[in-house]
Design a protein that fits this description.
With about 210 residues, this protein is of the alpha/beta class. It has two domains: about 1-15 and about 90-200, Rossmann fold; about 15-85. About 55% of the residues lie in helices and about 10% in strands. A five-stranded parallel β-sheet has the order 3-2-1-4-5, with helices on both faces. The chain is globular and about 50 Å long.
Length: about 210
């Protein structure tokens, strides 16, 4: 079985509400406010940010577009974009899960919606080649989840039939897209529950 990991919110920390609360204390007093501003900023990873994720616009352009759309100062928006790479820190329990899966003999890959500059940062800062056999970043291949084409590209890159792939992602739409292509897939909420699910599928020992 080939196991495919999403990155943000699965392997790397990503909680936009608390992220914005730390960066914008002058604008965010509660996590609820942070969630509301995150929805405006990232547009559920569609809109401006989706184009950035897909590698169709660069960092300067996404900053300009978000500032123009929201009325937030250009410098404030740029500060958020600059801070994202350092926010993407590995989640220790997921790193342990990856090591245990590799020790059990499974081949691991990744499939991540990630703008190219952030993908470059992760590739340089962390041992992705040690954790994964291969992977796809949306910003590099110019396709994005939940679109069918990036899943088709992944099947070719991973040299696998859909039924041979099991996918962990924290966004229901991406899980549904994988299931629609006959991948096995489930929603990731945390490493402990993912481990239980993998044990139940006989991919790990309890």
């Amino acid at each position: 079985m080939k196991i495919v990991f999403d990155f943000g919110g699965v392997l790397f920390r990503w909680h936009p509400a608390s992220f914005l609360a730390r960066l914008w204390p002058h604008r965010v007093e509660t996590l609820e406010q942070g969630a509301q501003l995150a929805a405006r900023f990232f547009q559920n990873y569609g809109g401006d940010w989706g184009l950035f994720d897909q590698g169709l616009i660069g960092a300067d352009e996404v900053v300009r577009r978000i500032a123009a759309r929201t009325g937030w100062p250009l410098g404030d928006v740029a500060a958020v974009v600059r801070a994202v790479p350092d926010e993407l820190m590995p989640i220790p329990a997921t790193v342990v899960l990856i090591r245990d899966l590799r020790a059990a003999g499974h081949t691991l890959h990744f499939l991540s919606n990630m703008p190219e500059p952030f993908a470059d940062h992760l590739s340089q800062a962390y041992p992705l080649a040690e954790w994964f056999e291969s992977g796809l970043f949306s910003g590099r291949v110019k396709q994005i989840k939940p679109g069918a084409e990036i899943f088709a590209m992944a099947e070719r890159r991973f040299e696998a039939r859909p039924q041979e792939l099991i996918f962990l992602d924290d966004h229901p739409a991406n899980v549904d897209a994988a299931l629609a292509r006959d991948w096995q897939a489930f929603l990731f909420t945390d490493a402990a529950s993912a481990r239980r699910e993998l044990v139940s599928r006989r991919l790990l020992n309890a």
